[in-house]
Specification:
Aspartate Aminotransferase, domain 1, globular, four-stranded antiparallel beta sheet, 3 domains, seven-stranded mixed beta sheet, Aspartate Aminotransferase, domain 2
């Protein structure tokens, strides 16, 4: 498919504006361009067809099954988009006087209240723009807490080996050293390894529960107790909250702060580069360290205030506000019972799909899972030469998005599935049939899967080169 620049023809365009008769105001000096801005010259019909063709090559939850593990790529109700499109929200300016944006401030205040109820926290900031940004902000809370106490020797953050890759990266960015601990034979935190890891230098623990294997750790209360007794704080990665929302709360598990991915769990489409939202909630004793611009109710409405020992701003203004509007709409639409039902169906769908596949594929941890599960194709690769990558590529020919590949790293030849609560039994049954067909084809015609996909616009690009040597700009012939 050609780029717009490659389809460009000099003089072609779609300019409907009349000629300027009042003269032009142009910048001068160093602000003026020394050559004409190079933009593609193309007709409206060709432009429309270009983007329509691109859309047809893009797969999303509106196109078909999208079981990408640890990402909750679920269908989101259109009412959330409608509410976020209301002019009263979209036409605001962040520098407007507070008395002119009381409705928007109420959205932030109500969303904070409801999300604190769901997570068991006491306060929340909406400044962080995405999940990893929320991780970083939560770790700054932990750092500020220890600094405020004068406890500067606490420099270590404990991270399990099944953690999301952003966890150690965020901890390092916040100035901590990372201590990695292994999982036990059941896929949970190894308690003995944790006891050996904690000490006077422990600042905190980063953990998601259920973890990236899709398993709820039965020792969670003991885990947080061990860290607290050592003087550290417990941070909850909320990426997998979709499995437990409305049923158990991180705050009740012993966690001191948490980040949420509103763009995973609470109705904003995930992917495409944004916008996201990674709000951070915390217990009351950490509230004074939150970023600026907290919202509180006051006489006559709402107002912004800066916490007593605020870390300052972590983002411009108040975060991605319209994402919060979608989240609040989602929560109010589902209600208390609906939120609980959503997490229950997510767990039901994952267990149903796992049990349908495990007669052929090997389940990495064969036990009741939560919202996602992990298959290991290590044995299949030894038997047939067909890898997890081959099966994933093969699924593209059936019109479904592949699951997550080669993650978590502690499972060899891993495929991670998250069918989500929004998929019907019929859709999951069809997906199971496809993966069983792929399993059969791996034994009968492995070369076919080595060459897959066969029916997509792009086959097997050099993914290593694409990652290390990306072409990010168009090169003009001078």
């Amino acid at each position: 498919m050609k780029l717009l620049f490659e389809s460009s023809k000099p003089g072609r365009g779609m300019d409907y504006l009349p000629e300027i008769k009042t003269g032009e105001a142009r910048p001068s000096g160093k602000f003026a361009r020394n050559k004409k801005l190079r933009l593609p010259e193309i007709s409206e019909v060709d432009l429309s067809r270009h983007y329509t063709s691109l859309a047809k090559q893009t797969h999303g939850v509106n196109d078909g099954f999208y079981p990408l593990g640890s990402c909750t790529m679920k269908y989101n109700p259109r009412i959330d988009e409608v509410c976020a499109s209301l002019k009263g929200f979209t036409e605001l300016h962040p520098l407007q006087p507070q008395d002119t944006v009381q409705g928007a401030m109420e959205v932030l205040h109500r969303a904070e209240d409801l999300l604190c109820k769901i997570t068991g926290m006491d306060a929340m900031t909406f400044e962080p723009a995405a999940g990893a940004h929320g991780e970083y902000t939560g770790l700054l809370l932990i750092r500020k807490y220890h600094q405020d106490k004068g406890d500067t020797k606490r420099v270590n953050i404990i991270v399990p080996d099944s953690a999301h890759g952003t966890n150690p990266a965020s901890a390092a960015m916040a100035g901590f050293k990372i201590v990695n601990i292994a999982s036990d034979e059941h896929g949970g935190v190894d308690l003995e390894a944790l006891r050996n890891a904690v000490g006077e230098d422990t600042a905190g623990l980063m953990l998601t529960n259920p973890n990236t294997l899709g398993l709820f750790d039965p020792n969670i209360l003991e885990i947080t107790k061990i860290v607290h007794e050592a003087g550290g704080l417990c941070y909850y990665d909320g990426a997998n909250l979709n499995a437990v929302m409305g049923r158990v709360r991180p705050g009740d598990m012993g966690f001191d702060c948490v980040h949420l991915n509103l763009h995973k769990t609470f109705a904003t489409p995930h992917g495409g580069g944004g916008p996201g939202s990674g709000p951070v909630g915390c217990k009351d004793f950490l509230k004074k360290f939150l970023p600026k611009h907290e919202v509180e109710k006051c006489e006559g409405g709402y107002r912004f205030y800066d916490p007593e020992k605020s870390m300052g701003q972590v983002r411009s203004y108040y975060g991605n506000f319209l994402v919060v509007v979608k989240a609040l709409t989602y929560i109010l639409t589902l209600g208390k019972e609906g939120i609980r039902e959503a997490s229950g169906k997510a767990v039901l769908n994952a267990n149903y799909m796992m049990n349908k596949l495990k007669g052929s594929y090997h389940v990495a941890y064969d036990q009741i899972c939560m919202h996602e599960f992990v298959l290991s194709l290590e044995d299949l690769k030894k038997e047939t030469g067909v890898s997890a990558m081959d099966i994933a590529k093969g699924s593209l020919d059936y019109g479904i998005h592949p699951p997550t590949m080669y993650f978590p790293l502690i499972v060899h030849e891993a495929l991670m599935f998250e069918p989500t609560e929004s998929e019907s039994k019929e859709v999951i049954d069809e997906a199971v049939k496809i993966y069983l067909d792929l399993y059969k084809k791996a034994h009968e015609d492995p070369q076919y899967l080595h060459d897959a996909p066969h029916n997509c616009a792009i086959g097997r690009p050099d993914e290593t080169k694409a990652a290390r040597e990306p072409v990010l700009r168009y090169s003009f012939d001078e």
